[in-house]
Write a structure and sequence with these properties.
The complex is a heterodimer of chains A (114) and B (333). By secondary structure, chain A is α+β, with helices and mostly antiparallel strands. Chain A has 3 helices and 7 strands. Chain B has a single domain, classed as 3-Layer(aba) Sandwich (Rossmann fold). Chain B starts with a helix and ends with a helix.
């Protein structure tokens, strides 16, 4: 089952970073229901995750200095940065920077289409 | 790539006008390439391995795609690609299991753009359904809008349910391609729109059933025809048909913008049809009193189903050429 890119776990709760609340965003149940026939979430991955942050250049520059993040790659022309961090840190950072971030999501898994 | 499909898509009429893709660079993002295949010898001008696995095609996916676009027909002229005089630039991004990471894909797109390609074939999709705001979709939009490079994306094979278009097929500026069988009926596995934010996708459909393509050495991901060829299926194989047609039109109209070319390709499609099975499957079973409601739902859904399943229809190269000629003339006057 495909993982939801906005879904994280935080202190035993499911957190959606797209619609910041404890409940999932509009995309999650629709996407997961269509693809699997069930509305259940796949448990989020443990350990350090690779994820993308979309925000203004100034915000990205500030975030890149945050010790909780390990910057992997910056794509300035689409205002995006890739970084790795633990799930707890990601959720905390999202809460701290609520208004400044456009998108904060897990990196998508891709596959050649057979 | 059989001559019959080129005739069906009216590509042969563009050949007779002298458009064979000469001078056009096509980029392919994917699983690598078998450079020793006789149909592709001399066609590949640059390669880059971003996967760390070497440029060879261990899966056989992109050798087939390269063949649909640019095969020379070395063993049989009837197996030429749609734009058989184009040149290819290959970026390998996938691991041995066909998976790829998002930031590697962005690197690949950037590298292809730096090589001067005019169109990119992208037959890789994400497992996650998106609304087109993910980074790869935004990178695709950036390449089309700011760099003038078209990106032709596979819709994916997660059908027949709606809302199954992943990234980068969900990108607004991408030309997203589903697949039909040899009777122009949509294949059940072809992913369907709309996107999560309600836009129409796929944009068009192309043949994706038992397409005879070059087979990479020692690969078995297809129905094997011979040492050098195999039959391939579904949306990843439909996508290069549109990329090839785009290359021909780009050669015919070098000054046309990617948006004009997309408009011409989509505005000149032939009809494509929904499979009867998927329409029937949307009917609930049960007692007679439910039939009226079911029929009502069936007919109201039919239009929605078609629009978000086959897009504008099955591509037609010659009609797209005429449409573009008309568009360019209107632009002049």
């Amino acid at each position: 089952m495909p993982d939801c890119i906005y879904h994280f776990q935080y202190r035993g709760k499911n957190i959606c970073l797209s619609a910041p609340s404890i409940s999932p965003c509009g995309a999650c149940p629709r996407a997961s229901t269509v693809l699997t026939g069930s509305g259940e979430f796949k448990p989020a991955m443990k350990g350090r995750l690779k994820f993308s942050i979309q925000a203004s250049e100034a915000v990205l520059a500030t975030l890149a200095k945050d010790p909780r993040l390990e910057a992997v790659k910056s794509v300035p022309h689409i205002e995006t940065m890739y970084a790795t961090a633990t799930e707890e840190d990601i959720v905390e950072m999202k809460m701290e920077n609520q208004d400044k971030l456009v998108i904060f999501a897990k990196a998508l898994p891709f596959r050649s289409v057979k | 790539m059989t001559h019959g499909i080129c005739r069906r898509l009216q590509v042969t009429r563009l050949w007779s006008l002298g458009f064979t893709g000469k001078g056009i660079l096509v980029g392919i993002v994917g699983t690598g390439i078998d450079l020793s295949h006789p149909d592709l010898e001399g066609r590949v001008v640059a390669t880059k391995d971003l996967s760390g696995q070497g440029i060879s095609d261990d899966i056989g996916h992109d050798t087939a795609i390269a063949g649909i676009i640019a095969a020379k027909g070395a063993k049989n002229w009837r197996l030429r690609g749609l734009a058989y005089e184009t040149q290819l630039v290959i970026a390998k991004v996938t691991q041995f299991d066909g998976s790829a990471e998002e930031d590697v894909l962005i690197d690949a797109l950037e590298w292809l753009a730096s090589q001067g390609v005019q169109v990119i074939n992208f037959s890789i999709t994400s497992d996650c359904v998106t609304d087109g705001r993910d980074p790869v979709s935004r990178e695709v939009n950036y390449l089309v809008e700011k760099r003038g490079i078209a990106v032709v994306c596979a819709a994916g094979n997660y059908g027949p349910a709606h809302y199954t278009i992943g990234s980068p097929g969900a990108a607004e500026q991408a030309i997203t391609v589903g697949c039909v069988n040899n009777q122009d009926v949509l294949r059940l596995a072809s992913s369907r729109g709309p996107t999560l934010d309600g836009r129409v996708k796929p944009d068009a459909v192309a043949p994706g059933e038992r397409i005879l393509c070059p087979r990479a050495h020692d690969t078995r991901s297809c129905d094997i025809h011979s040492d050098l060829y195999g039959f391939f299926d579904l949306t990843s194989i439909a996508t290069p048909h549109v990329a090839g047609i785009y290359a021909l039109l780009r050669q015919a109209f070098p000054k046309a913008t990617p948006q004009q070319l997309k408009q011409a390709i989509l505005g000149s499609c032939d009809p494509a049809y929904m499979p009867i099975v998927s329409r029937i499957s949307s009917l609930p079973s049960g007692s007679w009193y439910r039939i009226h409601a079911a029929l009502k739902r069936f007919f109201s859904r039919k239009k929605f189903d078609e629009r978000h399943s086959v897009g504008y229809g099955r591509v037609n190269a010659y009609r797209a050429y005429l449409k573009l000629k008309e568009l360019m003339n209107v632009g002049k006057t």
